[in-house]
């Protein structure tokens, strides 16, 4: 049970790091993401997800897996929309840097896609 709780907290912290990486350039928050958030986003998300899955064989783990995967896919989609809006001149990115958006688009899309796909695979085989 402790692995599940620890994994859930770490995955949530990784997800929140991604939220800041997307929200700051879009001007939704006053935070300035530092290098540590760039490291913590994939690290906490992957380690937390791993602990969550390893710590429980219960099918109830599918729900947090879907939430994490779906949330990361949503953040990747928001990053893609922000990049397109910036490229079209509809949105001025704060700090004039699109790098955090690209980072979340790529990593969030991959991690979220794998998490969503694995949750679907588990539910079909059960």
Structure description:
The radius of gyration is 15 Å and the shape is elongated. It has 126 residues and is mainly alpha-helical. The chain has four helices and no strands. Helix 3 packs antiparallel against helix 4. The protein starts with a helix and ends with a helix.
Supply the key terms.
126 residues; mainly alpha
Sequence of secondary-structure elements: HHHH
| Amino-to-carboxy terminus distance | 21 Å
| Major pleated sheet | none
Please, how many helices? 4
The overall pLDDT average reads 86
The number of strands is: 0
Shape: elongated
Low-confidence stretches: none
List the helices and strands and how they pair.
Elements: H1 2-23, H2 35-55, H3 62-87, H4 99-125
Summarize the structure.
This protein has helices at residues 2-23, 35-55, 62-87, 99-125.
């Amino acid at each position: 049970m402790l692995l599940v709780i620890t994994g859930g907290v770490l995955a949530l912290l990784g997800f929140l790091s991604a939220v800041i990486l997307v929200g700051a350039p879009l001007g939704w928050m006053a935070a300035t993401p530092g290098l540590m958030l760039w490291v913590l986003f994939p690290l906490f998300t992957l380690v937390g997800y791993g602990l969550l899955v390893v710590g429980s064989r219960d099918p109830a783990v599918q729900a947090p897996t879907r939430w994490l995967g779906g949330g990361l896919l949503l953040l990747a989609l928001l990053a893609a929309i922000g990049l397109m809006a910036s490229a079209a001149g509809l949105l001025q990115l704060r700090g004039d840097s699109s790098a955090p958006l690209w980072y979340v688009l790529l990593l969030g899309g991959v991690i979220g896609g794998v998490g969503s796909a694995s949750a679907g695979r588990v539910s079909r085989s059960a």
